Each structure stands twice: as C-alpha cells, then as structure tokens.
Amino acid sequence: MAWNEPGKDDKDPWKNKGGKNQGPPDLDDLLKDLSNKVGGIFGGKSSGGGSGKSFSSIGIGLILIVAVLVYVFSGFYTVKEAEKGIVLRFGQYAGTVEPGLRWKWTFIERIIPVDIQTTRDLPAAGFMLTQDENVVRVEMQIQYRVVDPRNYIFSVTNADDSLSQSLDSALRYVVGHARMDDILTSGREKVRQEVWTELEKIIEPYNLGLIIVDVNFKDARPPEEVKDAFDDAIAAQEDEVRFLREAEAYARGIEPRARGRVKRMEQEALAYKQQTVLDAEGEVARFEKLLPEYQAAPDVTRQRLYISSMEKVYSNTSKVMIDVEGGNNMIYLPLDKIMEQQSTVQRRMPQSATNTGNSTNTTNTAPSISGRSDRFNGGRN
C-alpha cells in the first residue's frame, strides 16, 4: 500500500522525522542558504565576520594570479628549424614567424607550422595512349619543396592534391603527343623534360607556393600481351647503339695512330729536305774552296780528286785489284773469301782453340800477303 493514501499519515517520509512532524524542504530556503554561503566566500556577509571577508579576498587574488600564469605559459610555442609558422589572428592571416621559441595570444592567435626545407615526393602512374595509338604504362615521380607558406596554405584548398592532379594532366598530355618507341627507348629524357616544363606551366597560375626540384622517369613498358615483341625491338635498338659505340671507339683508336704516322712522315720529309739542302750547300762551299786550288794547279788538283773518288768507290767493296806497272798482269785479292773462310774456321773450333787459331791464322796470313806484295813490288821494280 502506498504511503500517501488517505489515512496513512504515519508513513509520510517528511513527517515524524526526528520525532517531529515536518513537511518537505522549502526550495526558496535552500537557494537562500546556498547564496549566503557563496557570498561569504567572495566577500559578502557570512557568519564568520571580518576574518571570512579577508580570506575570500586572498583566495580571489590567488585564483587570478594562477589564471594569469596559466594563460601566459600556455602562449609559448616552438617553431622547428625546418619550418615557418603562419600566424592567424581571429582566423585572419597576420604574418609568418621564423624558427625558434615564440609566444602567442591564447584563444586569439593560432599558429600553423609549414615545413619549407624537406623535399617531398609525389608519384604518378597509369596506362596512357600515345600519338601512334599504342597503350603504354608510364611511371614518373617528382620532387618538390614549399617556398611560400602563405600561398601553400591559402591559395588552394589542398596544394599537394592540386599538384598531383597537375602532374597527371601534364604526363598524359606529353605521352599523348609522343611516339611509343621514343617513350620506351631513346626519347625518355625528352619526355621527362617536357613533363617538367608542362607541369610548371600548369601550376603557375594557381600560386601553389611550390617549386619543382626534379622529375624522375622511373619506368615505361607496354602491356603484357605485347611485352615480348617490344623487348626484342628494344634489345635490337640497344645492340645498334652498342655497335655504334664500338665503331666510334675503334675510330677514336685508329685516327690518332694515323695522324701520328702522317706527322712522322712530315717530319721525315722536312728532315730529308733540310739534309738535302745542307748537303747541296756543303757541296757548293767545297766547290768554292776547291776552285781557287784548281785554278792554281789544275793537274795536281785533278789527280787528287781522282784518287779521292777512287778511295770512296773501293771503300765499299771487299775486292782489291792491283795494277802492276811494267807488265800486263793485274792481281786480284779476294779479301771477302779470306774473311769468310776465317769466320767458318772460328765457328767450328772450340772457344780456346778459336782464340789460339785467330792469332795463328793472323800470323800465317800476313806473310803470304806481304810475300805477294814483295813479289809484286819486285816485279814492278
């Protein structure tokens, strides 16, 4: 049975409490009591008198000091060495700050750090249609860096995403205006440069605050269905390039030697020319010195020239012919045969015997020649 049924007053929780019959608490009395207590803490009337008022003033001061210290220390922040900070005051751009320890107005200013030194990578890849209506998969990667933090944050919604879309557009444009053979083989560098140029042209009006550091052409390959045929074609082109390099290397090796031979022949010709000129000048000088002698004594000079000429002629032969005056005989001395016979004997004999034989043969040969000479002289006399 409920406590509030008629005739059940003894079960009312607000009555008979503490032995007294009391009703529910008055809400106004509760609020008034709470207000008096709070007013006593903050300097109002309280049951404590003057000491309560002094305590409340000190408490308020301490709270204010702590709040100020917390606010001040909460405003310190650090900008890293590779970053620049963008200051927003009430959401509006208010400038940039350099790296280091800084302070800002908390709840008034906000700092957005932007890395301006790190080089970032952005890849791009996909199947694309070339100018000669072939499909090729191209992979490329760019490297970029932030140079203007304000434009990087505020010029577009997302600068990195805008750069990615611009790279894809530039790559497809360049590949669409190039032949597949050039993309796969010799035209890769040209494609890379054209993509770089086209990308800078696309992003320039948007002021993204970025700079393109490098563009890397990573890979280009045909679809798997025709990959083998294209591999053979590429191998043939590489062989062609290799043969050309080998031919150029051979030409570079042959040409210096040929030029060296030409230079040597030129030097020899110049030397021969100088020698001939000097010989002619020497003959002229000798003739000029000989002419006065000839004019003074023609017969004697003529005889001396004849003897000198004959001496030069016979000095180049190993045969000696002696004309004996007063007779009709001419003696022939085969000196070459004699010398050849002596060399044969020396080769056949031992070393010790050869040395002894040399002295013996020399001793034995000399008298025979001298004897013949005596005979010739005796016959001539």
UniProtKB/TrEMBL annotation:
InterPro entries per the UniProt record, alphabetical: Band7/mec-2_domain, Band_7, Band_7/SPFH_dom_sf, HflK, Membrane_HflK_N, Stomatin_HflK_fam
Chain positions covered by the region annotation Disordered: 1-27, 342-381
A Pfam family that the UniProt record links to this protein: Band_7
Bilayer topology annotation: Single-pass membrane protein
GO molecular function: peptidase activity
Comp. bias intervals (Low complexity): 354-365
Alphabetical GO biological process terms: proteolysis
Biased composition (Basic and acidic residues): 1-15, 372-381
Functional description taken from the UniProt entry: HflC and HflK could encode or regulate a protease.
Quaternary data: HflC and HflK may interact to form a multimeric complex.
UniProt protein name: Protein HflK
Species for this entry: Thalassotalea insulae
